[in-house]
Design a protein that fits this description.
CATH topology of the largest domain: Lipocalin
Shape: elongated
Length: about 210
Amino acid sequence: MHLYASDSNDRKVVPWVIAGIAVLVAFTCSAVVTWRKIKVPWWVEPPTIMTIYGLGHWLYNRHAWKWRLFGRLLSDMPNYSGTWFGVLESSHVERTKLGMMYIHQSWTELCVEFDCQSSRSYSLMAVVNVTPGLTEGLTFEYTTAPRHDAKETMNAHLGLNHLRLSPDCRTLEGDYFSGRGRQTFGRMKLIHIGPKRMTYDRAEAKYKILNK
């Protein structure tokens, strides 16, 4: 996984919130020990602000950013995690093909993997914009390596992809183009198959069931 940039206010606000909670928890622990006159063994260190902050940041980064509190998400960051499967329309010989995408995402890190019959790709860097407009969505640079049985014209190359999540969070749709070594472009529309990683065959079978 690699870090990704975002224009979400979470990145500005959340660290301060976690720091405030850490200070409050550390102060409360110290006050309780003093009030109850608890004798703490010399080998036990009371929780420090930095320790609590580290645990809080880890919890939020891995899990809490996807939670709801009183019906409201704790983060504005879209959740792209899971297996996606769908159709690609390529400028290369003007044909369509199927492909599977798996996205592993935390609040600060992300990795996009794409798998099709002729090649495999993975992301190198990414940005997630939440402000409505032309740049809203997931944009990432990727590198592609052809499979051993791919055509000789299929070369390793870099590319850029921009995808937007549907309001119901079930569909990813957008454009892509490849750089030097391939120079193709096209569109893709992917359906969310499940939250966990799947094999290509299993994802394709579920995709066909959902599209009946």
